[in-house]
Prior knowledge:
By secondary structure, the chain is α/β, with parallel strands linked by helices. Helices cover 29% and strands 17% of the residues.
Amino acid sequence: xALDGAGNTSRLLGQEDVPPVFELxxxxxxxxxxxxxxxxxxxxxxxxxxxxxxxxxxxxxAWDIGIAEVAEAMSRALDxxxxxxxxxxxxxDCNRPPSVxxxxxxxxxxxxxxxxxxxxxxxAETRRQEVFDPYHGRITEIIDQRxxxxxxTILVALHSFTPIYAGVARxxxxxxxxxxxxxxxxxLLHALRAEADLVVGNNEPYAVSDETDYTIPVHGEARGxxxxxxxxxxxxxxxxxxxxxxxxxxxxxxxxxxxxxxxxLPRMH
Length: 269
Ligand SMILES: [Zn+2]
């Protein structure tokens, strides 16, 4: 198993690597702005396979299974802008403050990540500069532009969660994740609970906090945007039909909620 360059302090992304930021519908007219922190599971060529077998690199520890297709379908259906990050969360987790240990995990669930062990401060900083910073810099830029254009903006961070974590089965089909916003999460919860077939998590399987999250606290709450995270259970969106079904369901629900949020286009003087 190759570990070439895992501790390399030189540039991380080379000519064969794609940029970390993926965008869809950049001119989308919806107030919804979707982010997808765990969209992809690519590894920069210089990191080899992080010392892991292929099976591990396909598991939930590497990315949010199924969410990329759901996010893209929702972006298209709602004419909403999507910004996503293509590299594995094992390279650097784009929904963690870079200062916390789980930013570049040495252990994920029960899997040791050899390529993340004994990482130098410089190598960690390089991952931040070349993956984390461009992604979050782009989200900041998008929000700045939307505020300048006086466009209503609702930040929705899309994620998926593993049905079984550390041997414990999770009953929820979907969860809303939030902390400070009191506008969107209760309406979203109400709408999801009205779906007769769903077990809905209220800040389950996780709650948002400043220590364990980045996108919602930094881009949503700190900027005063209406915001929420949405987590869908991965077995429900593991194939194309499940992804389409969930994208359609959430598109319908978000379309129904939008008029209830009291958004208005600010008057231009
Ligand atoms: Zn996620």
